[in-house]
Amino acid sequence: MARKSAELPKLFVLDTNVLLHDPTSLFQFEEHDVYLPMVTVEELDNNKKGVTEVARNARQVSRFLDEIISRAKKSDISGGIPLAREHDKTPSGTLFLQTLNGSAIPNSLAGDKADNQILGVALELKRAHTTRAVILVSKDINMRIKARALGVDAEDYFNDKVLEDTDLLYTGTRELPSDFWESHGKDMQSWQEHGRTLYRVKGPLVSGFLLNEFVYQDHDSKPFYAVVKERDGQTAVLQTIRDYASHRNNTWGIVAANREQNFALNLLMDSDLDFITLLGQAGTGKTLLTLAAGLMQTLEHKTYSEIIMTRVTVPVGEDIGFLPGTEEEKMTPWMGALEDNLDVLNKSDDEAGDWGRAATRDLIRSRIKIKSLNFMRGRTFLNKYLIIDEAQNLTPKQMKTLITRAGPGTKVVCLGNIAQIDTPYLTEGSSGLTYVVDRFKGWRHSGHVTLQRGERSRLADYAAEVL
């Protein structure tokens, strides 16, 4: 980002939580300068032990700082060290480390608290640099409030955000205008393949289509539902979808209750798609549809050898402490959604009777494995149907760690609701789920649908709307 010659680079004071959240944040301020108070380095040292994501990030920041300082001479440290990394041609600023005492902590703040010491450093810098903008960067809302109250500019760390406005997040569906066929179907070709009708359409609207995006028209007496199979410039091939709302196409006894569920089942039952993301509020059927499709393809079609289900163990209320037992037994309290949905799927066969349902449940149990995210690093899954539940609580880095576990023949399905994030420092715009939805859109072997309508009960639907 070019700046006018008269403008001086800004001076960003980094809070420790920014570095712990994104170790590469040191290099994300372009041509502007970065200032690290000494208490920040001390807090990094206090957080470096352990196997948590925070501990790993603390160690990575320390390695970055060691690399930067080792390039500099002793005389350069007090005058600032260039932040440019090797082979990096983008503009970069200078790193300043606090080398002298001098922080004006107001009497109203406790002097022994690390946050207040960082605020004091920011105040001192603002007094010393009257011609430059001094900005405190923190993920802590209260820290930013205190800074602004003291007259110091403060900002959140936004570089990790995929989208500023989650209303712009890809939904996987697109409604065609009423005049679409008149304007785009003049030289249209149509043909049949494997019981589906395909249409080759051409026009300016087509250039915005993405592969595996669903297009529809609902205003006619017979609705039109299709998926984009090919696109080249202003030409696209649309393929009609399988109707999973029909009982003859039921998936383990489940039929689609609405349009988006129909789209979701078309993605989940397509063995050519390796990565699926489903977003939606509670009660839209994400877990039920995913499990039904997984059981159908594991037990009936034999496409996958087993279903593996995992989720982030973030408690909604008070933590219940350490749990006894094996990995699967420890994860059981977090898998209430799995139990509830298995009950629904097991009751869908009324003709089997109690003995038949019990046998089916035992069979299902033998093919579903519950795994903890803590033990995923280094593993490879072959021919598995991997379900990642509550994926909105994952960081982009954790999401990458999980998805790269997929070996040949494995399908990964991520489920979540970005309006229900329980993890500190993650927002709707920076969640790992938002990240993968945006990065995978349009890839030939991935698909996404945002489920709109709740199907639990009128009470649940009304509560989700008004509460």
SSE arrangement:
Layout: E1 11-14, H1 16-21, E2 33-36, H2 38-46, H3 53-71, H4 74-79, E3 81-82, E4 94-97, H5 114-128, E5 134-137, H6 141-149, E6 153-155, E7 173-175, H7 180-184, E8 189-193, E9 196-202, E10 214-217, E11 224-232, E12 235-240, H8 259-268, E13 275-279, H9 286-300, E14 306-311, H10 327-331, H11 336-346, H12 353-367, E15 368-370, E16 384-389, H13 396-403, E17 411-416, H14 432-440, E18 446-450, H15 458-466
Parallel strand pairs: 1-2, 1-5, 2-4, 5-6, 7-10, 13-17, 13-18, 14-15, 14-16, 16-17
Antiparallel strand pairs: 3-4, 8-9, 9-12, 10-11, 11-12
Helix pairs in contact: 8-9, 9-11, 13-14
CATH homologous superfamily assignment of the largest domain: P-loop containing nucleotide triphosphate hydrolases
CATH class of the largest domain: Alpha Beta
Domain module count: 3
Number of contiguous helices? 15
Q: Span between N and C termini? A: 43 Å
Strand order of the largest sheet: 3-4-2-1-5-6
Which range best describes the helical content: under 10%, 10-25%, 25-40%, 40-55%, 55-70% or over 70%? 25-40%
Mean pLDDT: 83
How much strand content do the residues show? 15-25%
Task: Label the overall shape.
Answer: elongated
Q: From the 3D coordinates, which CATH architecture of the largest domain would you assign?
A: 3-Layer(aba) Sandwich
Uncertain runs with pLDDT below 50, 5 residues or more?
1-6, 314-320
**Strand segment count:** 18
Structural class: alpha/beta
Query: Biggest sheet: strands, sense, closure?
Result: 6 strands, mixed
CATH topology of the largest domain: Rossmann fold
